[in-house]
Amino acid sequence: xxxxxxxxxxxxxxxxxxxxxxxxxxxxxxxxxxxxxxxxxxxxxxxxxxxxxxxxxxxxxxxxxxxxxxxxxxxxxxxxxxxxxxxxxxxxxxxxxxxxxxxxxxxxxxxxxxxxxxxxxxxxxxxxxxxxxxxxxxxxxxxxxxxxxxxxxxxxxxxxxxxxxxxxxxxxxxxxxxxxxxxxxxxxxxxxxxxxxxxxxxxxxxxxxxxxxxxxxxxxxxxxxxxxxxxxxxxxxxxxxxxxxxxxxxxxxxxxxxxxxxxxxxxxxx
Length: 270
Hints:
This protein folds into two domains: 5-138, Rossmann fold (3-Layer(aba) Sandwich), CATH 3.40.50.620; 151-269, 3-Layer(aba) Sandwich (Rossmann fold). The chain is built from eight helices and twelve strands. The protein has helices at residues 16-30, 56-72, 89-100, 123-130, 159-172, 187-203, 220-230, 255-261; strands spanning 5-10, 33-38, 45-47, 50-52, 79-83, 105-109, 135-138, 151-155, 178-182, 208-212, 235-239, 266-269. A ten-stranded mixed β-sheet has the order 5-2-1-6-7-12-11-8-9-10, sandwiched between helices. Helix 3 (89-100) crosses helix 4 (123-130). 44% of the residues are buried.
């Protein structure tokens, strides 16, 4: 899949700049169109008994977002800033999700429970489940300007893993080495599957090493997250399954585990 049409979520939060930097970098690299979609929680201004929308605070935040987007995207062939102009969670999620369906890749932020809540906490998860597009979730801490040079690919022979692997190819094409980690069992089958993934990546000019994680279902995602740190990976690629389970419905770990504890940009595909 070529990356030619990107969408990035914007809000007044401190990490919006990091998301925008990643999105702009990808747009420059792939000569892609970039749409910045401004969407944040907000209440209407109450004037007596009359509710007035948008509030002055929302208008000011939107204007600042547009100015920052235009500065960051200077020189891009095609960049567009849009305002959702809705303050409720349901409308915000619905409209961002609808916009995401027209993009090759969606860039969104990880929810930070310690920061002010500017968007619905479940925005990233809802996009993964309902947009039908690959979603790149950027952590709320850290510098990831050069992500994708040493990616970790969580693999389990599922349809979702295959989709994630394919959608990740434009993001990891220039990596120095990919790490393919199998979540399957038994060991022999997992090892064979990993080797097939490595051969497939080699066809795309990507060198990969493989390993099989030996962990029970309950702790599988903890093992994945630990391997990211141990191997100094700078990106995670993973498939989301029915009910947003990772990596399989039988596993107790789910998308919230990854999206809550991720420490590197994570491409999630359903």
